[in-house]
From TrEMBL, chain A:
Listed name of the protein: Phenylglyoxylate dehydrogenase
Domain called 4Fe-4S ferredoxin-type: residue spans: 6-35, 49-80, 82-111
PANTHER family membership: 2-OXOACID OXIDOREDUCTASE (FERREDOXIN), PYRUVATE SYNTHASE SUBUNIT PORB
InterPro entries xrefs: 4Fe4S_Fe-S-bd (IPR017896), PadI (IPR054808), PorB-like (IPR051479), THDP-binding (IPR029061), TPP_enzyme_TPP-bd (IPR011766)
Keyword Disulfide bond part of the UniProt annotation: no
Classification via SUPFAM superfamilies: 4Fe-4S ferredoxins, Thiamin diphosphate-binding fold (THDP-binding)
Species annotation: Aromatoleum toluvorans
Keywords of this entry: Oxidoreductase
UniProtKB/TrEMBL annotation, chain B:
The organism of origin for this protein: Aromatoleum toluvorans
Domain Pyruvate flavodoxin/ferredoxin oxidoreductase pyrimidine binding span(s) in chain numbering: 33-260
Lineage, opening ranks: Bacteria, Pseudomonadati, Pseudomonadota, Betaproteobacteria, Rhodocyclales
Domain annotation Pyruvate:ferredoxin oxidoreductase core: ranges: 286-390
Protein name listed in UniProt: Phenylglyoxylate dehydrogenase
Record carries keyword Cytoplasm: no
Gene3D superfamilies referenced in this protein's UniProt entry, alphabetically: 3.40.50.920, 3.40.50.970
Amino acid sequence: MGRAYSTIAFDPAKCDGCGDCMTACAQAKTGTDDIARSRIQIYGRDGAADKTFELALCRQCADPKCVTVCPAGALDKDGTSGVIGWDASKCVDCLLCTVGCAYAGIALDEGTGHVAKCDTCDGNPACVPACPKGALKHITTANIYNEVGDWEDLFAPGLAGCQGCNTELLMRHTLRRVGPDTVLATPPGCVPGMGSVGFNGTTGTKVPVFHPLLTNTAAMLAGIKRQYKRVGRDVQALAIAGDGGASDVGFQSLSGAAERGEQMLFMVVDNEGYMNTGMQRSSCTPYGAWTSTTPVGEATRGKTQDAKNLPLIMVNHRCAYVATASTAYMEDLYDKLDKAIAASKTGFAYLHVYSPCTTGWRFPSNLNMEVARKAVETNFVMLWEYTPQAGLHFTKPVDDPLPVTDYLKAMGRFRHLSPEQVEHIQKKVVENQKFVERMTEHAHVG
Amino acid sequence: MTTATLEKAAAAEAQRKQKVILAEGNEAAALGVALARPDMVSVYPITPQSSLVEHLAKLIADGRMDADIVDAEGEHSVLSVLQGGALAGARTYTATCGPGLAFMFEPYFRTPGMRLPIVLTIVTRDGITPQSVWGGHQDAMTVREAGWIQVYCESVQEVLDTTVMAFKIAEHHDVMLPVNVCLDGNYLSYGASRVEMPDQADVDEFMGEKDVNWHVALDPLRPMAVDPLTGGTTGKGPQTFVRYRKGQCAGMQNALRVIEEVHADWAKRIGRSFAPLVEEYRLDDAEFAIMTLGSMSGAAKDAVDEARDAGRKVGLIKIKTFSPFPVEALMKALGKVKALGVIDRSVGFRWNCGPMYQETLGVLYRLGRFIPSMSFIGGLAGADITIPHVHRVIAETEALLNGTAAPTEPVWLNEKD
C-alpha cells in the first residue's frame, strides 16, 4: 500500500486572526519576530461582514505543482515524511514555484532572498501549540494507515451496509486491529445485518463469527473464552454490538459478564437506536430525536426521555477498562482499542463508540465525520477513558464547546425541535459534562 | 464360558466395586454430573433445584470435580454461557425448572437447532400462576416441542445413572442434541434413597473420548460462521433450511435407537438396567393398563401389585423417554391391552387433558383399533399421587372395559384432597 502523511489542518471558524502562529513560526524558522517571514500566513478576508481569516500554508501536496514547475530540481517530496523539501544548493531563485502553488504555500523570504516554505518542523510544528483558539491541528492519523494499512481486512469486501456507513468503517478498523485469533460475536443489528455472519452458507467475515441472540452476547462469549482459557489457548473474545442490544434487552448479560470480570472486549456501536430494524427508539436515543417509534406528531415531537449513559453505567461495574470513542478521532480510537485489547486479557473491557447513522439520523453520508466531530465539539458526547487504577479522565476535553445547535442542525432527525426542546438538550449537555467532570475530579477517591 | 456369561460376570464385578451411599435426588444428579466430567457448569438457583447446584459448587470447591463453574446472573445467561462453551469444545451441564426454565427459553429453543449436546436437568416444578414452588411436570411439558430430548426418572438411582448416560446420548454423532433429565421436584429432588455409586474408572471407559464440537465450532483454527441467516424465498434458502430441520428431526429419531444402545452399554459395564424408552410392568397378561411418568410410577406399581393380588388384570406402562415420543415401543405395549388410563402430572390446556394422554392418542390411532382410554391428572403443585389415587385410576379404567363410554373430561385426582 502507499503511504499517508501527517498534515496541519486549519479551522477558520476558530481563528480570530491573532497571529500567534506566525510569530511562533518566525521565531522557530528565522529567529526573529518578523511575521512577514513566517511560513504560515493568516489573511483577513476583505469585505466580509464578520471578519474571517484564510490560511496560506504548504499543503505538502501529493501531486505538488511547485515540484513540477521547478526547473532546477530544488524541490522534492520526501517519501517517508511526505514533506516537500527545498534544497538551497540547487535553487536558482526563479520563483516559478510561488506561481505554481495555488495555496501560497511557498513564498519569497525577504530576509534571505530565497523562497521559504513549511517543513512541519520535522513533524512537530511550532505553530500548532501556539494557537490559543485551537484553530490549528496537526493531524497525524496517517500513522494509523501506515501502520495497519497493510494488515488484512478481516471482513470480506462488499458488505451490504448502507452507503457511507460509519459502522462498517469502525468494524473494519476494529477487527483489523484485533486480529485473526479472534471469535467475533455480532448480535442482531446492523453489523450482522450487512452480512458479516452471512446468508445461506456464505459469510462476510474471515474469523470465526456468530449471531448470538440479541440478549446473550456477553454470556455466550464468556463461555467461549473460558473454555479456551481452560485448555490453555489464547483466543480473543470480541463483541461488536449495537446500542439497543447492549443497553436494553441485552443489558442483563452484559452487566453479569462485567461483574464477573469475563475476559473479553465488548464494543458497543452506538448509533442511538435500532437502525437495522427500521430506526426504532432505544434507551440510547437522545431526547427529542425522531425515530420510527418516537415520531413527530401533534401531541409529541420525538423522544420524550433523555438517553441512558451506558458507558458510565459500565464504569460503575469497575471494569478493567471502559472508554468512549468516536470515528472522527481515529488516533484516540486506536489508542483505546489497544488499551481495551490489553485489558481484555485479564478482565472485562468495554468500548463505547459513537457512530452516526447516515440513514437513520437523516444526513448526507459525506458528512459522517463532520457529524461525529460536531458531537464531540459540542460536548453532546464526551471522549474519556476509565481504569480502576487511574480513574476517569477526558482524552479529548472540550473546554470551549460549540453551541449544541451546531450539532443538531447537521441532521434531519432533530429538524422539528422547538426552541424549548433545544434548550432542554443544551441544558442536559452542560449537566452531563459537569457530571462526568465531577467523576474525573474524584477519579482517585473511589 | 459364553460371552453372555462373561459380560454378566463383568457387570457383577462393576457393581461389587460400587460404594453405597444415601443421597437425595439433587445430590445424586450432582454426583452423576461429576462422574461424567464436564468442563463447564453454569448455575443459577431456583426451588426445588437449588441444592443440586449447591452440591455441584461444593464438589468443585472440594476439588472432587474439575470443572469451570460460572455463577451467571440468571438462567438466560446460564444456558448462553454453556452454548459458548460447547461451541469451543466443552462438555457442559446445568439444571433449572419452572420460572427459571421459562426465563431460559430463548436460548433453550435455539440449542437443538445448533445441535449442541448440552445436558440440562429439569427438577420439575409446576407452572405459575397460581404461585407455587412445588413439583409437577408442567415446566418440562410446556417446552416439549422445543426439540430437546427429554427423559424422566423414576428413582434416585435412576437419576444418577441417567445423568451420566445423558451426556453419552447427547454427544452421540447420530444424535447431537441437548438432553433434559427430568427428575420430579420434591419427590426425587429431596427424597433420600440408597444409591450405588459407579466406579469412576468404569464410567470413564463408558464415556470414551469427548468430541463435542466436531460439527460446529467457534475456533480460529477452524474458522466458520455459525448460524448465518438461513431460509427465505431466494436461492438455496428454502432447501437449506429444510435440510437443517430435517437433520434435526433425524437426530431426534436416531436418539430412540441410541438411548436403547446406551442403556444396554450401561447395563453391561455398570450392572444396572433401566427400560430406556417404555417400561412394561405386569403387562403381558393384562387386559387393561395404566400409564405413568416419573416418580409416581413407584406408587403405581404398588397399586398394580395389590390389584393383581385382588385378581384384576391390570398392567402398567411407564414412559421414560418422552421426547422423542417412543411411538413404536408404545404401540407394542398398547397392543397388549383393551383399555387405558393415563396419569399426567401436568395439564394440556388445549385439549383439556394431560399432555402425555394427548400424545398417546396419536399412538392409539396408529394402532388401528379402538382402545377406550381416559385422562387422569394428579400430583399438581406437589400434591401426592398415592396408592389409593392409583386404585381409583385402575377402577375407572377397568370400567372402560365394560363398554362404558370413555369420558371426554379428565379426572382430577386431587380435586377433593
